[in-house]
TrEMBL record:
Organism: Geotoga petraea
MF terms (GO), sorted A to Z: ferric iron binding; ferrous iron binding; ferroxidase activity; identical protein binding
Primary localization: cytoplasm
EC number: 1.16.3.2
Keywords, ordered alphabetically: Cytoplasm, Iron, Iron storage, Metal-binding, Oxidoreductase
Function: Iron-storage protein.
Swiss-Prot/TrEMBL catalytic activity: 4 Fe(2+) + O2 + 6 H2O = 4 iron(III) oxide-hydroxide + 12 H(+)
Location relative to the cell: Cytoplasm
Protein name: Ferritin
Length: 174
């Protein structure tokens, strides 16, 4: 059964949000590179790759269901922050925005009685719990660190160990 246009349009808008997320995190990575915080930049670069995988999942689902992918313009992201805490504060607010958007998509899939879309979106619901927790944890650590440069550099080193997710998994799972 083909998806309703209302659902395809909503999924295309979410695809745009996923691509914007990658764009935003790339801007954050560039900010960290400019501040010589390579570990933070690495964490953000891994986040970019993860967001691109999320976008690809959305893209593939639209096509698999017989919909037409419409790539919409991507807004210019913020590109300057006062410190690492502000970056992660913005990142957490963005993840909360994405969570709200995913939840509204779930509501729409239920309203339109599209069980396949609802099932598909449950992966994103679970993923957003992880996204908010991870980003929130770093933001909270940065709040505790305050102006302590040694602690900031220690966290930078730790974040430098994050590995990007592999796109080789046929299910795109993480």
């Amino acid at each position: 059964m083909a998806m309703k246009e209302k659902l395809i349009d909503a999924l295309n808008k979410q695809l745009n949000k996923e691509l914007y997320s990658a764009y935003l995190y790339q801007s954050m990575a560039a900010y960290f590179v400019s501040k010589n915080l390579e570990g933070f930049a690495n964490w953000m670069d891994a986040q970019v790759q993860e967001e691109m995988l999320h976008a690809r999942k959305m893209y593939d689902f639209i096509l698999d269901r017989g919909g037409k992918v419409k790539l919409l313009p991507i807004d210019e992201p913020k590109h300057d922050w006062s410190n690492a805490f502000e970056v992660y504060k913005d990142a957490l607010e963005h993840e909360e925005f994405v969570t709200d958007s995913i939840n509204k998509l779930v509501d729409l899939s239920i309203e339109e009685n599209d069980h396949a879309m609802d099932n598909f979106l449950q992966w994103f619901v679970t993923e957003q719990v992880e996204e908010e927790k991870t980003t929130g944890d770093i933001k909270n650590k940065l709040e505790l660190i305050g102006d302590n440069v040694q602690a900031l550099l220690a966290l930078d080193e730790k974040l430098g160990t994050r590995q990007a997710v592999s796109s080789t998994d046929p299910q795109g799972q993480q």
